[in-house]
Specification:
- This protein has a single domain, classed as Up-down Bundle (Na+/H+ antiporter like fold), CATH 1.20.1530.
- 76% of the residues lie in helices and 0% in strands.
- It contains 18 helices and no strands.
- Helix 3 crosses helix 9 and helix 3 runs parallel beside helix 10.
- It starts with a helix and ends in a 10-residue tail after the last helix.
Length: 422
């Protein structure tokens, strides 16, 4: 690929993503949907201006590094206080590992027509909700904090687990791993190794940041140090055990987010802006690799598969996980409806499609198309209807003026999970 065409590829990708963000800001539409649509327009489904495969082997490297940045930024904000809130997150994660995986597995085969092997890979890829989608939704509709924290915690805990599980299943499909025992052993090994390396890297980075002077003039150095250690950690983990860099990035972010520092917010805000830039580039780039030839054969079966995930599998998992927890039916209903997929889901699907096609495995495009259909439908439908549903259920935080002027509003507000400092 010529240098001129490579420059054009990145220029079109960045421009299309920035335009989508601008339209989202001006219209209040969901940015993720517009980013995906922009990728379809400039990619194989549209004008064919952007062909991600032209990047060759560097595509996986670029995607992996940018996704690690997004996960690290999510870890910075992750807070799982004790009590019922932590219990809720962990129970939802555990139940969804079983219910959501099994439900997606059956729906992908019976409704979308994937063979059993690819259906298993698909169910692992779409296992987690996307914090990069959930967080903007929660902030936009001012959802009450306990629900937002449960949704964010669920996604950040499940995303690396789902990504690593998908890799293990992919290796099983390609014959690089034998039996379910090998899958389980590989999953635990990668998660354990990644979390351990993330904790160590986070402690090292926190100590280095603490020793820097409390001066805004060293912000650039703080950012360079953070990215240097993050990318070195991700690359080192992946060199030892593939996909172990994802749980490492989350773990490192959690440790650094809890660091004692005189200026934590300034650095965190800058990292948040970089993560948003990564999302603006990644979504159009990955969506550009999807063609209508891969989406159209899914037909009503593909749509039905995604709808089953949204209106049957997710509510069932939340119902089972929330049994015994002090959640009102309104809160359970909101948790049941909010399950949009995000950037990690798209990245894993795109990289897997490349590996399957390289191995001559049929159905790779169908798998990728179904994953992107899942992202489009969950983000589109839930993004458009969630604010309305939250208002109807009374789960929106009241305005400060109304809160100060009306005691009735406070009395009518639904109960929240105990253990949360209000």
């Amino acid at each position: 690929m010529s240098a001129e065409r490579l420059n054009l590829l990145w220029g079109i990708t960045m421009a299309s993503g920035a335009t989508a963000q601008l339209v989202a800001k001006l219209t209040s539409l969901q940015a993720v949907v517009l980013l995906l649509v922009s990728g379809l327009v400039v990619g194989r489904a549209g004008f064919h201006w952007v062909e991600p495969l032209d990047l060759g082997s560097s595509l996986g490297t670029v995607v992996g590094l940018l996704v690690s940045l997004v996960l690290f930024e999510g870890g910075l904000k992750l807070r799982l206080p004790g009590g019922e809130l932590r219990t809720a997150v962990l129970r939802i994660v555990a139940v969804r590992l079983l219910v959501a995986f099994g439900g997606a597995f059956l729906a992908a085969h019976w409704l979308a027509g994937l063979n059993w092997s690819l259906a298993a890979v698909f169910s692992a890829i779409v296992l987690a909700t996307g914090p990069t989608v959930v967080n903007p939704l929660v902030q936009q509709m001012r959802l009450q904090e306990p629900l937002g924290e449960v949704l964010e915690g669920e996604g950040l805990v499940l995303e690396p687990i789902g990504a690593v599980l998908a890799v293990m299943l992919l290796e099983l499909v390609l014959g690089d791993r034998t039996g379910w025992q090998g899958v389980a052993a590989g999953l635990l090994l990668r998660l354990g190794f990644g979390v351990a390396m993330g904790l160590l890297s986070g402690l090292l980075l926190s100590e280095l940041l603490r020793r820097l002077p409390a001066d805004s003039g060293v912000l650039g150095l703080r950012v360079q140090l953070t990215l240097g250690i993050l990318f070195l950690m991700y690359g080192g983990c992946d060199a030892q055990l593939s996909e172990s860099g994802f749980p490492a990035a989350v773990a490192a972010g959690v440790v650094v987010g809890r660091r004692p520092s005189s200026e934590p917010q300034q650095l965190d805000d800058f990292i948040r802006q970089l993560a948003q830039l990564a999302i603006t580039v990644l979504f159009p780039l990955l969506a550009a690799d999807v063609s209508w030839r891969e989406l159209s054969p899914l037909g009503l079966g593909g749509v039905g598969c995604v709808l089953v995930l949204m209106v049957v599998v997710r509510p069932l998992a939340i119902s089972l996980a929330s049994t015994g927890l002090p959640l009102q039916w309104k809160q359970k209903l909101m948790l049941s409806w909010m399950a949009p997929r995000g950037i990690v889901t798209a990245a894993v699907a795109s990289l897997f499609a490349i590996r399957l096609e390289a191995a001559g495995f049929s159905g790779a495009g169908r798998l990728q198309g179904l994953v992107f259909l899942t992202i489009l439908m969950t983000v589109g439908l839930q993004g458009l209807t969630a604010p309305w549903l939250a208002r109807r259920l009374g789960l929106v935080q009241p305005d400060l003026e109304a809160e100060a002027g009306s005691a009735e509003g406070a009395a009518d507000a639904p109960a929240v999970l105990p253990g949360r400092v209000q």
